[in-house]
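Please fill in the sequence for the structure shown.

STRUCTURE ENCODING:
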């Protein structure tokens, strides 16, 4: 029966945002290090709560696996004389490896036959190995931010206070930055602050209830949801779903108790999102609504203690929330004292980026680029989009958004409507930040979509133009997200806008703000978009080489590029795909580097090349018509029908004829075939398996 390992790293309260990643890394790291040290296992589980990270490994052996080491010695010709007797070289090698010369063998290698010694290294006892690797695991864990404490030199998310380390019931003794491991754990900070002796995972789990500790995040999730459901039935409402908040609260408590509090109904005069945001961001409260969707004057807080002091806890939370909502109401009334348009001037005092000017200047560029985009998609009346664009950043200067930055756009919509702006303009102001994250909705309105495109492209072009490029670890202006947002909008909306033209217009509007070479900047932006688009399209459906082949043929019109990727993926499933691709790649290799020229019918000598020329002429017309209609799969099938004619051509003639005129003419004929294909994809990038 396998042994078990239990490791608990006890610390001061670790930030909730750190814990899911730490759990995942602890599991992955442990599996990797155990494997490297030849310790098998059946499962690795990790758990976390604010004061602890827990590792539980099942199915460990008593010892490492033995290691057989193969050591090469001298060449056979050196190791033995002509009569087959071992030389001094062989005897010295055996002595050096600690093996009998009779146990040496000969091994065949790429360089010839060599003398070989196989040494067996017995595995160490598992506790001895764990004593070495557990400190390594703790040291290797990464956190978004870490710290040193006391006189120690090692770093961790928060100061470590105890380490529980057991191999079955046996303590694994080691010291980590002055803290000695043992068999003691601690319970809830306030309800069970003392130490508790642990004899293994079963003992740890059994004692957790008495220690007011739910160490498994999934147990805390289930308990919180169960308690919330009970409160929902009591108040006759329902919690507004907020998975992100629930995930955070799960890692803020070790012993969750959901409590329901109230606030004065008068605060319901605040915009819905203001109330929800104030409760969520400052207090980590869940909001409640009625069955009809109206907010209720109640909230749910999850306390990290027993409900014995529920009344006092609820009263304290209500008092704090009252102060928050009073401030929010003051901000709202103060902001409403001015029309939204009056805040536009205030943007002149807010720097967007030192070299790219103020937010006022950015808003002007957004308005101009939005109007340009509107005309590109056939909207002649650009006043609505320009008006909305000029207001899109105004709410950043309001008191409410300064207090609650996540309400940007939302408050712009509220204040626009209260200022008498159209519903159309207000919606565009609200939606222009979309999509905010992967999988988020794109703007529903045309105005919102165009302003979103303009805003994002202005940021990308500006940052690239001054050398503020995203790196693996830093992307302060969220250029990756902005780029993916543009790709999502253009592909979903199907706008007939060329990416290169939009980049050119954004760079033109930035004018003297751009400090780098304009053409170099343009190419860098296009390459960046290509990389993000490739990552977006490669999936279980689309192979990497399919995407690469299509993008190499052009991606300026994104909906068109997506249609070509879909078509090539579908074409790959047809029987003709592989034989056509093989002959196509052969043709492309032959014509590589040749000049483009017209086919001279009079130079066609062999029947196979005359036949191919006629087929190509007929096929070109069909393919051109299909491509114009966007029927790329049918176009590929039509081109592929030339495969037999191309094979006959290769069988019947020598393409690289001694007569240069005949050679060039045959290359020109093959170029006509390649030209049809290259309008859809670069087949030289296709991998045929």
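FILLED IN BY: designer on duty
SEQUENCE:
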């Amino acid at each position: 029966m396998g042994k078990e390992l239990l490791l608990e790293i006890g610390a001061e309260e670790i930030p909730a945002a750190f814990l899911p990643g730490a759990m995942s890394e602890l599991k992955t790291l442990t599996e990797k290090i155990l494997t490297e040290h030849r310790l098998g296992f059946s499962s690795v589980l990790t758990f976390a709560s604010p004061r602890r990270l827990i590792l539980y490994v099942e199915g460990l052996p008593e010892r490492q696996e033995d290691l057989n080491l193969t050591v090469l010695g001298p060449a056979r010709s050196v190791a033995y004389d002509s009569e087959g007797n071992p030389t001094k070289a062989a005897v010295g090698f055996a002595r050096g490896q600690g093996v009998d010369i009779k146990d040496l063998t000969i091994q065949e290698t790429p360089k010839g036959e060599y003398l070989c010694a196989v040494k067996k290294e017995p595995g160490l006892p598992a506790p001895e190995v764990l004593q070495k690797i557990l400190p390594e695991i703790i040291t290797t864990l990464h956190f978004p931010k870490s710290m040193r404490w006391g006189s120690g030199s090692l770093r961790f998310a928060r100061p470590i206070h105890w380490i529980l380390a057991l191999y079955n019931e046996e303590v694994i003794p080691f010291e980590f930055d002055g803290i000695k491991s043992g068999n003691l754990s601690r319970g809830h900070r306030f309800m069970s602050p003392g130490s508790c002796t642990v004899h293994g995972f079963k003992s740890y789990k059994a004692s957790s209830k008495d220690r007011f500790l739910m160490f498994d995040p999934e147990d805390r999730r289930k308990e919180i949801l169960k308690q919330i459901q009970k409160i929902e039935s009591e108040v006759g409402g329902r919690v507004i779903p907020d998975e992100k908040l629930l995930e955070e609260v799960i890692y803020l408590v070790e012993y969750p108790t959901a409590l329901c509090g109230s606030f004065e109904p008068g605060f319901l005069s605040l915009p819905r999102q203001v109330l929800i945001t104030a409760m969520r961001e400052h207090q980590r409260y869940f909001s409640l609504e009625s069955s009809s969707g109206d907010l209720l004057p109640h909230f749910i807080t999850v306390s990290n203690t027993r409900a014995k002091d529920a009344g006092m806890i609820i009263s304290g939370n209500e008092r704090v929330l009252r102060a928050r909502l009073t401030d929010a109401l003051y901000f709202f009334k103060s902001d409403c004292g001015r029309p939204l348009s009056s805040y536009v001037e205030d943007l002149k005092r807010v720097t967007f980026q030192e070299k790219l000017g103020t937010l006022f200047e950015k808003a002007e560029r957004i308005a101009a680029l939005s109007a340009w985009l509107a005309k590109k998609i056939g909207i002649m009346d650009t006043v609505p989009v320009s008006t909305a664009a000029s207001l899109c950043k105004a709410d950043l200067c309001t008191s409410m958004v300064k207090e609650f930055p996540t309400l940007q756009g939302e408050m712009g919509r509220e204040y626009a409507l209260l200022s008498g702006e159209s519903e159309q303009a207000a919606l565009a102001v609200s939606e222009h930040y979309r999509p905010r994250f992967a999988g988020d909705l794109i703007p529903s309105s045309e105005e919102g979509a165009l302003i979103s495109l303009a805003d994002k492209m202005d940021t990308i072009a500006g940052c690239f133009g001054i050398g503020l490029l995203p790196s693996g670890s830093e992307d302060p202006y969220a250029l990756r997200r902005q780029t993916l947002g543009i790709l999502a909008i253009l592909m979903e909306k199907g706008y007939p806008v060329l990416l290169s033209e939009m980049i050119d217009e954004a760079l033109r509007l930035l004018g003297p703000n751009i400090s780098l070479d304009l053409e170099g900047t343009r190419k860098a932006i296009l390459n960046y978009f290509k990389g993000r688009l490739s990552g977006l399209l490669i999936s279980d459906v689309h192979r990497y080489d399919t995407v690469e082949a299509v993008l190499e043929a052009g991606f300026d019109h994104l909906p068109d590029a997506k249609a070509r990727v879909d078509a090539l993926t579908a074409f790959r499933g047809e029987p003709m795909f592989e034989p056509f691709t093989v002959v196509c790649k052969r043709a492309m290799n032959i014509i590589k580097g040749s000049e483009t020229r017209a086919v001279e019918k009079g130079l066609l000598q062999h029947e196979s090349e005359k036949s191919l020329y006629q087929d190509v002429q007929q096929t070109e017309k069909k393919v051109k018509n299909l491509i114009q209609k966007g029927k790329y799969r049918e176009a590929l099938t039509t081109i592929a029908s030339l495969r037999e004619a191309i094979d006959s051509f290769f069988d019947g003639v020598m393409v690289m004829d001694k007569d240069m005129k005949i050679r060039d003419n045959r290359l020109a004929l093959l170029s006509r075939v390649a030209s049809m294909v290259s309008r859809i994809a670069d087949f030289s990038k296709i991998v045929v398996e």
